[in-house]
Design goal:
This protein is an alpha+beta fold. About 50% of the residues lie in helices and about 20% in strands. A five-stranded antiparallel β-sheet has the order 4-3-7-6-5. A five-stranded mixed β-sheet has the order 8-9-10-12-11, with helices on one face. Strands 1-2 form a two-stranded antiparallel sheet. The chain is rod-shaped. The two termini are about 30 Å apart.
Length: about 500
């Protein structure tokens, strides 16, 4: 299971939230800027407003045509065919060659009539088949058209007189006058534009339509923004999680003592800088451990050299002298030569035993899968057998599981060194080993009845110094009690680590 799965999801959701929020802010800002520009006056969406718009368009388009004699009905037909159902529009934004507009549309049909009710043009369907351009039509037969038509012929400027409204289906019949554009005849009506409006936007329709469109666009836009944020966030989070996973895997290897692997993150951001610092730290630790190992090996070699010089070498030299003396006396005094040979044999046996002790000290002791008390008892029994010194062993451990592997190894090595010193230097006949471990501390006591020594005199050996250093590295205390001819007692106290 990837421990950074939760981090990936959190980062992905964060990217989605940030992306959607950013796009929402942009949309709201654009809306605040653009909506005032596209907001149309509310009077445009009333019958009176629609009449005013149609009056302006009728004067602009139809006055020049209807003022001519005869009227060009072909031109009227072309203009009507090109007309749209747009009531009004606003161009609110232009980007390069792209123009954004808002237009209001209506569904309508239209007629262009002369003052004698002659049909001059027609647009849209749903008119009787007998409506033929160039012929008059019966205005009074079209329901709701007579009154607006007569008001338009009279040149009325009152919008309320120029339309008839059907409330039940939101339909209008509008008739607007077309005045002459000839000089001096501006007030003369030359025709009437009739518009049948089947439906048109009201004051309530426009904001509702805008809100529906804006809501759909916003949802679609936010969905796209969220999808884009999810993809980008997933890619970014996945890459970041992989980097953290490599960092965690590498540091875990370091915690196990393996410094052969490095993070090697060259991205250049803050995580990369942290990884670079950790790599440098690992290199320094690796170099420090290497130097420490070299120093430990050198120190151990020096100790072994000194021990061999002080014990095995001297005994081997003495055995050599005894053998030389035996060779000299062999022809003259065989009995005396035999005594020297026996002594040489004892010395050689002592050298063998000394070398055996050194081999046991060098042999690594596995602590995994075994009880520490049994390991220590087995070693004490073997040491007593090899050294010929009687040893009483007492071990009292309340909770061995609380004792760390590092503490076990330190206590074992200290006991090894202390017993080796007893065998080499004390000339003791009896020794005691006592180990007591409770919830707070571990106390190791080794006592012998040998010749003892004066602790105030500086010792040239490394045994005591090695035991003291091991103890202090574990945060414990080391003490030696001894005097000439009264034996030696060593007490080591280590704190229990939770």
């Amino acid at each position: 299971m990837n421990i950074f799965r939760r981090l990936r999801w959190q980062l992905t959701f964060s990217y989605i939230l940030v992306t959607v929020s950013a796009f929402l802010v942009v949309i709201l800002a654009l809306g605040a800027i653009l909506l005032p520009r596209i907001f149309l006056p509310s009077n445009m969406f009333t019958p009176e407003g629609l009449v005013e718009i149609l009056e302006q368009e009728a004067t602009y388009f139809w006055s020049p045509i209807l003022s001519e004699t005869p009227v060009n009905t072909t031109l009227i037909r072309v203009l009507l065919n090109q007309s749209t159902n747009s009531i009004t529009g606003v161009d609110f934004l232009r980007i390069g060659n792209i123009q954004f507009s808002v237009r209001t549309l209506a569904s309508f049909r239209g007629l262009i009539l002369g003052t004698d009710q002659t049909l001059l043009g027609i647009i849209g369907g749903f008119f009787p088949h007998d409506y033929i351009v160039g012929r008059p039509i019966a205005v009074e037969e079209i329901s709701g058209l007579k009154d607006p038509y007569e008001a338009a012929l009279a040149g009325s400027k009152d919008p309320k007189l120029l339309y008839t409204e059907y409330e039940q289906n939101n339909q209008l019949i509008i008739a607007v006058p077309v005045n002459s554009n000839l000089s001096g005849e501006e007030d003369r009506v030359v025709g009437v534009a009739v518009v049948f409006v089947d439906s048109f936007p009201t004051q309530r329709d426009v904001p509702r339509t805008i809100l529906i469109f804006a809501g759909r666009f916003l949802l679609l836009f936010l969905f796209g923004a969220g999808l884009m944020g999810a993809v980008f966030g997933a890619m970014t989070a996945n890459g970041l999680a992989k980097r953290f996973n490599r960092l965690a895997t590498t540091t875990e290897r370091w915690s196990e003592g393996d410094f052969s692997m490095f993070i090697n993150d060259s991205t250049g951001d803050e995580v990369s800088k942290l990884a670079h610092r950790l790599d440098n730290m690992a290199e320094q630790l690796q170099s420090l451990l290497r130097r420490r190992q070299e120093m430990a090996v050198s120190e151990e070699r020096n100790r072994l050299a000194r021990d061999l010089h002080d014990s095995a070498k001297q005994q081997a030299l003495a055995a050599s002298f005894e053998l030389g003396t035996a060779l000299t006396l062999f022809d003259q005094d065989r009995q005396g030569a035999k005594k020297h040979l026996v002594e040489a044999d004892n010395l050689v046996d002592s050298v063998r035993q000394e070398l055996t002790n050194l081999v046991h000290e060098l042999r690594p002791q596995s602590m995994e899968g075994q009880e520490f008390s049994e390991i220590l008892k087995d070693y004490a029994l073997d040491w007593s057998h090899r050294s010929g010194i009687e040893l009483d062993t007492k071990i009292n451990i309340e909770d061995e599981e609380r004792l760390s592997l590092e503490s076990k190894e330190s206590l074992f090595r200290i006991a090894q060194e202390a017993l080796a010193n007893v065998a080499r230097h004390s000339s003791a006949k009896h020794a005691d080993l006592l180990l007591e471990i409770d919830a707070e501390k571990a106390i190791l006591t080794i006592k012998d009845n040998g010749c003892g020594f004066d602790p105030k005199i500086q010792s040239t050996g490394v045994g005591l110094r090695s035991m003291r250093e091991r103890t202090e590295e574990m945060g414990g205390s080391f003490s030696v009690e001894s005097s000439p001819d009264h034996g030696t007692q060593i007490i080591i106290t280590l704190p229990m680590k939770c």
